Amino acid sequence: MTEKRLTKKELTSMFLRSNFLLGSFNFERVQSLGFCYVIIPALKKIYPEGEERNQALTRHLEWFNTQPWLTAPIFGVTAAMEEEKANGKDIDGSAIQAMKIGLMGPLAGVGDPIFWGTARPVLAALGGSLALTGSIVGPLLFFILINAIRLSVKYFGLFYGYEKGMEIIKDMAGGRIKKLTEGASIVGLFVMGALISKWTSINIVLQATKMKNAAGKVQVQTVQNVLDSIMPGMLALGLTLFVAWLLKKGVNPLLIIIVIFIIGILGYAGGVLG
Amino acid sequence: MSVIQIVLLLIVAGITGIGSVVDEAQTHRPLVACTLVGFVLGDIQTGIILGGTLEMMALGWMNVGLAMAPDTAIASVISTILVINSHQGIGEGIAIAVPLAAAGQALTIFVRTITVFFIHKADDMAKKGNYKGIEHAHLLAMSLQALRVMIPTLIISLISATAVQDFLSSIPEVITRGLQIGGGIIVVVGYAMVINMMDVPYLKPFMYAGFLFAAFTNFNLVGFGALGLIAAMVYLQLKYNGQPQVAAPAGVVFDDDDLDA
Lengths: 274, 261
What we know:
The complex is a heterodimer. Chain A is mainly alpha-helical. Chain A contains ten helices and two strands; from the N terminus they run αααααααββααα. Chain A folds into two domains: about 10-195, no CATH class; about 200-270, no CATH class. Chain A has a two-stranded antiparallel sheet. Helix content of chain A is about 70%, strand content about 5%. Chain A is elongated, with a radius of gyration of 26 Å. Chain A has helices at about 10-15, 30-45, 50-60, 70-85, 95-130, 135-165, 165-200, 225-230, 235-250, 255-270, and strands spanning about 205-210, 220. The relative contact order of chain B is 0.10. By secondary structure, chain B is mainly alpha-helical. Helix content of chain B is about 75%, strand content about 0%. The interface between A and B is large, with 118 and 111 residues.
């Protein structure tokens, strides 16, 4: 029997398909059907028609869920393991399954803070603030940068996972993942703190003090002026922490959003907010 | 609206619908979706400004695990159509976008539930080795997500602009202005989502450090990103390289740092 090896063609096809991984996201097995869809080019190449291929297809329809961009190395390792198995190496199907489940958690732990917690909000705030002035640079900057990051992670992640194969587990075990997760969380939290202060606009226009200064001019201070002189952004911080607490208690974010809008309307009508 | 415009709008709607489920190219983010709709309708400027405004409200919205954020795809596409075609202000745009985000969320949850049916179909097909069928099941489920945005977009495109205009103009100023004020505040919900996701108590001081820096300096976002990165590097070095390196044998200098990049 000749060896059946994966080539760049199958791996590239997997990379292209992985752009639609979450297309069949569902509440029973989440990304399972998508995972199978992405790996089909590899399975088709290494398994001839028959029972082994059918089992492989079934294997990759199992429950799967992680940060979508960081599935790339998992796809690489899975392809490498399936290739070994197809070439007669003694790898149990359940070992492949276990590897997928084992990598899922740690990679989501890294991917969520890096991409959803830091890269996207930062680039979106950058692009959004430019867009407020009507500049096309805003949306372009966001779209190009986030996709440059995403595509390189997905492409190199896939090939890295394929070349390293099972060795990737060793990389993970060396405490590297923990370091990466901590590092990403620090950047994310730091920038989030900055965003809270700079990119939230709350303005309490209610009058706090009114007095005549030395020149005889009437000076009005709003509550916001007073608060800002103590610590700019403190209301935003307090509100953020309060909402975080509510979300943890299981309150629906949509409900919170609606309540904030009602406060906005009532506050404006009552002359408190402006 | 011309027929060509409606067709183009439906294409944009389909792309953002798929975008919001796959979460890859970020076409469902208001910044991109509103700009595209503005481009199709010949008023890209308004699209960009509305996109920026909505983006700043939805900064931290994300789907993590099984939790769904309000849907930005339907909200962005339809509110931009209404604002441009009915000559409304950004305040009206926000007023329409918010209930649409809620409706969009309900719709995507509905589609994600009926997709379970496709999984069971795929199970049967896998047993027979019908990989083509599995591919079709996946793509069909994905096209439902496209239709989820395309159908409401088509309905809105066919409603007469003047009727919509009358309706939108009847919204009192206190509502639109109040929603705009609320729009400046609700971004905290997104921040809270991000903070909860990175819920590591011993790292929380970094958030307060970021807050203080922003409160009392004039750094821009790039500056804050760089500062955060430096903080992370210093922290990791102090934490992990502080101990004397007992186990390092002489001569081993190679450290494959691929993942740290």
